[in-house]
Amino acid sequence: MQRIFDILLSASALALLSPFLILLVLLLRFTGEGKVFFRQKRIGKDGAPFNLYKFATMLENSPNIGTGTVTIKDDPRILPMGAMLRRTKINELPQLLNILLGDMSLIGPRPQTERCFDAFPLALQTIIVKVRPGLSGLGSVVFRGEEDILPGEPEKLCIYDQVIAPYKGQIEAWYVEHATLDTYFAIISVTIWTVLFPGSDLVWRVFAHLPEPPDELKSALHYPPTAPARVAG
Predict the structure, then answer these.
(1) pTM here?
(2) In whole angstroms, what is the distance from residue 30 CA to residue 91 CA?
(3) Tens digits of per-residue pLDDT, 27-78?
(4) DSSP letters along the chain, please?
């Protein structure tokens, strides 16, 4: 049933947004490096790699310079229109094509590059690849401001590997183990709300049993200080 909804909703979104997408293609073509789409290998269902599509928001050679496939705060590789597209998540819209092709779902664990996927604990990796990755998902909503969490200094990238990735892996694995159609539509609703109100803590109220984040991430993830005690991990 989820696959049926994926096809219906992604096709409808492409049809509805087509005038806006055409305008965006023209703007990207005549700004920055003139590149419209960015294609990158990501880890998909059963660990199989696939080509993920985005609107180009960074220098074409960005995966080979600076911090590689991890984007940090005020990343100098981001193009003039890129900051706005990334902040609003509009740059992710070409993945509606990935959904129609069967590489992705509308909702699921966020597809990672091999470098970032390898930062997940091994036990969680085996759970996460059981389902198709998603255009949005709990990991995407909880870590919607991930670039602002990472310091601007590349040498502090260890924060991603030691703090962010292990907890993000827990969130993604929690989704896989609790995936139902109710969860699917709840995450769609929370995603829309969070795009409109980025500082909202709605995800923690709707999904009250998510693993508790480590103390150093609670403020950045808008974790409510009055949240009930949860099982860490």
Answers:
(1) 0.84
(2) 16
(3) 888 876 678 888 999 999 999 999 999 988 777 666 655 556 666 556 667 7
(4) -HHHHHHHHHHHHHHHHHHHHHHHHHHHHTSTTS--EEEEEEE-GGG-EEEEEEE--B-TTGGGSTTTT---TT-TTB-TTHHHHHHHTGGGTTHHHHHHHTS-EEESSPP--HHHHTTS-HHHHHHHTTS--EEE-HHHHHTTTHHHHS-S-GGGTHHIIIIIHHHHHHHHHHHHHT--HHHHHHHHHHHHHHHH-TT--HHHHHSTTSPBPPHHHHTTTT--TTPPP--B-
In whole angstroms, what is the distance from residue 112 CA to residue 49 CA? Answer: 10
Max Cα-Cα span within the chain = 51
